[in-house]
Amino acid sequence: MAGGADGPAAPEGSGGTLSNLLREERRFPPPADLAAHANVTAAAYDEAAADGEAFWAAQAARLEWAEPWTQVLDWSNPPFARWFTGGRLNVAANCLDRHVRAGHGDRVAFHWEGEPGDTRTLSYAELKDEVCRAANALLALGVRAGDRVALYMPMIPETVVAMLACARIGAPHTVVFGGFSADALRGRVLDCDARVVVTADGGYRKGAASALKPAVDEALEQCPDVRSVLVVRRTGQDVGWTEGRDVWWHDLVAAQSAEHEAEAFDSEHPLYIMYTSGTTARPKGILHTTGGYLTQVAWTHWAVFDVKPQTDVYWTAADIGWVTGHSYIVYGPLANGVTSVLYEGTPDTPHQGRWWEIVEKYKVSILYCAPTAIRTFMKWGERIPGRFDLSSLRLLGSVGEPINPEAWIWYRRAIGADRCPVVDTWWQTETGAQMISPLPGVSTAKPGSALRALPGVSAEVVDDSGKPVPNGSGGYLVLTEPWPSMLRTIWGDEQRYVDTYWSRFPGWYFAGDGAKKDEDGDIWLLGRVDDVMNVSGHRISTTEVESALVSHPLVAEAAVVGAADETTGQGIVAFVILRADGEQAAAEAGGEDVARQLRAHVTREIGPIARPRQIMVVAELPKTRSGKIMRRLLRDIAENRALGDVTTLTDSSVMDAIRDRLPAGP
Ligand code: WTA
């Protein structure tokens, strides 16, 4: 939403709409022992400020290059960047071979935990062998460098193996989240013209085997150019079989040699395409390349999580089907030679303590997840993690959406025993790697703030005309310098790349997020600008109203949308999930009374301007594969429109469930 009566600045007279976010005034300096042994100190900011390219060159030198680069950054044709030009490297060799060669072959790469409780441990040496076999298998299927391979997989080790096998032979992968529909899969396969698909019969979710192969079969009915489907047997369920096209993984891959000489590819060789669920109907194929991407994911993983490869057990509790999984389950941790946990299933199967059982079992020391998960755990209650030994944890990370101070504090206290730093990391599919985040050994954390751009990254908050806003004001988040892991283009659509990201503020990358700078100049992310509401000419962040709602003791989770309103432009409509005692209160006093209480609460917290026009109590909220609430669909409900595209929902039945609980219309 560009422009508007009052521009992107905070509503007047409110002391900034930050008031609610800033109510939590506690500050958390780094623990002394962590700071004393931190991988990165404050000096990194100075080094990067003095010479950004030299800074990134030093980080790139952490990787193994078959040929050195001749130029750090070629920005002669903006916004098309080329990093480490002339350099050549192999991503899989950087993630595996060099660690094995350095004598770390026996180190565990993944502790994999299947949802039914089956497990598998893969050392770096074993993973390397498996990747080489899979690389040979892909070659046997005729895949060559540059060919695209689509993956539609559950969270099993073969997913990582297949990605690295693609990287090893220079075939860009596109991982399509296993919760996507056949339609969505087809669209992506066609858009990037993949000729080979890797999938599984199914995977385990919510205590049952859920099928994947039927969706592939359906999708491929209209993808005549796909010639091979490589199928992992995971669940053992019956699958349809197309002779001549379908091949079992255990037949083809197991028969291959574990020897494969990794070829070095150009630094700008495509590594993968990740489709993002956008606000428009057609998903965008975000293209990431080799040298710059690996440099920044490796460095940020090392710096932001302060990983010690010898001792840490690291867990990104996200799906590999979105960018967090790519950068911080696969490429970052493996480039750093770290031991990770990989979990197949849902957090409440077979019980609501499953994550914490896993933390206890593998002595996880670093956990990275999304605020939506944290709020779910809050809803389930602190007693559940309280039953497990979480003393191995030393650092907690958050990603994917603004984290409200209540959730931040709960995460630190209930999971982190009030001793683990919380790093709130802002980034996007497009940025490839973390961009704005505390450094755990340096930063004094403020609950709810991602603080400032990481060393080597330049972020600003600007107003409608592109002018940086003063401290204490809000606007649009932009990135003012190219960075190594930036998207290179939108696959097959350079113009859309230029238009979407580089045209709103020429020369700068427009992130699509609203942000504010507080009095110290620290950055608070306020959600997508398309989620910023405009009520009577005042801009109000959906995040802020949500934050107010979840600070009420009856509320577990809230999603707020701006619905068209004849009088005020937009009206605020809130969808809330109540905590167990809230449900009871609603049953006793009636839903209307709960709604009245919540409206009054928001009025108190932010002001009458933020008072929701309508509050709907629902059982579930529609979420994307990456756990983000799909406000677009909620807006459709609030405005009583036909629903938009739901293929990006993890569970499209949620929408029906919501509608069933609602009155006919607002
Ligand atoms: C949001 C996920 C606030 C933001 C890595 C961004 C965040 C979008 C944060 C990208 C955060 C991500 N605080 N908002 N720490 N991290 N976001 O592409 O709106 O799935 O633009 O990448 O998530 O989502 P994506």
From TrEMBL:
Matching SUPFAM superfamilies: Acetyl-CoA synthetase-like
Names of required cofactors: Mg(2+)
Protein family (similarity comment): Belongs to the ATP-dependent AMP-binding enzyme family.
Top enzyme class: ligase
Record lineage: Bacteria, Bacillati, Actinomycetota, Actinomycetes, Kitasatosporales
Protein name: Acetyl-coenzyme A synthetase
Top-level taxon of origin: Bacteria
Entries under InterPro entries matching the protein: Ac_CoA_lig, ACAS_N, AMP-bd_C, AMP-bd_C_sf, AMP-dep_synth/lig_dom, ANL_N_sf
Keyword vocabulary terms for this entry: Acetylation, ATP-binding, Ligase, Magnesium, Metal-binding, Nucleotide-binding
Domain AMP-binding enzyme C-terminal: 544-628
Entry's Gene Ontology molecular function annotations: acetate-CoA ligase activity
Role description: Catalyzes the conversion of acetate into acetyl-CoA (AcCoA), an essential intermediate at the junction of anabolic and catabolic pathways. AcsA undergoes a two-step reaction. In the first half reaction, AcsA combines acetate with ATP to form acetyl-adenylate (AcAMP) intermediate. In the second half reaction, it can then transfer the acetyl group from AcAMP to the sulfhydryl group of CoA, forming the product AcCoA.
Organism: Actinacidiphila polyblastidii
Catalytic activity of the protein: acetate + ATP + CoA = acetyl-CoA + AMP + diphosphate
